[in-house]
Amino acid sequence: METVSGHRPTIIDVAKRAGVSKSTAARALAGASNISDSAREQVLRAADALGYTRNALAVGMRSGRSGMLGLVLPDIANPFWGEVARGAQDRAADADTSILIFSSNRCARKELMHLSTLMRARVDGAIINSVADSLDDLDRFGLPCILIGSSAERFPDTCSVGSDIVQGVGLGMDYLRSMGHERPALIVGQPTRLARARFLRVVHEHCVEHDIDPAVLLIENADYTVEGGRFAMQRLLARNHGLLCVFAANDLMALGAMSAVREAGLRCPEDVSILGFDGIQAGAFAWPGLTTIEKPARQIGAQAVAWLLDGNADAKPGTRVHLPCRLIERGSLANLCDASARRVGSVKG
């Protein structure tokens, strides 16, 4: 909105309309306590009438705080990270704080570029799933940081919030075993990905605990995408190992695997049972619905923002929170322990 003179309203215009000094108007808009309620009300009414908006950058330069946070995600196209962003944004809004959101597309160069932008914007802190090899580069930006996701394991001295992968993968393996699937095939990430190592480590420990040789499990590496899961499933089907159950390391790969099963003229779960990991909404609309281990995406985003706002990134270095996962049962897993259930059929090459 513009004033009668044609310029955007300033703090001087607000003060003049409210009949107070410029400093009083500024204190009222900043929420200062050393001002009367009547004066504050006059200023707020004047600002609303003029359509006045505070210059956040100018305020930040004076106060040393911008009222903004940064969030750098590895892949905003993955619905899981969209849910993390939603949780972070909702929590920030509750504290009258804004969030600048970037996607690194798993590129360390882009990640550093985004952090440079956040530094120039004078954000009060950053939440990041780092793809950079070292936090030395990140430290030079001078931003309080909270790590999320599997990258946090590389940086034990930095605060982090994430899902409890040990509990979540263990929950999935226990559920598969209860359904009669003791030796699932696995679709996991590429060998360079830390998340892949974490997932396989828990599976290995579960197998050893239940007297199963982990070496007998079929494993296919894939990108964490629908196409990655589809191609990995095609390779598993081509290996023709009879009864087949698949545990995919994320839901996008699981949905791709379900697509490959249909393309092969097979059915899920009658011919191939599939378990996902993440809990994205798309799994509920697949046919059959995708049974999955849901990671607490929104809570991760909300908790990370809360920690930044509370100053935990600097006050409690190395503090970690692992939030529990939960099982969502739908229709993509056959129950081999139920005599009335139809058994999974042999996979044909």
UniProtKB/TrEMBL annotation:
Keywords: DNA-binding, Repressor, Transcription, Transcription regulation. It holds the Pfam family LacI. Residues 9-63 form the HTH lacI-type domain. Gene3D superfamilies: 3.40.50.2300, lambda repressor-like DNA-binding domains (1.10.260.40). It comes from the Bacteria. This is LacI family transcriptional regulator. It comes from Caballeronia udeis.
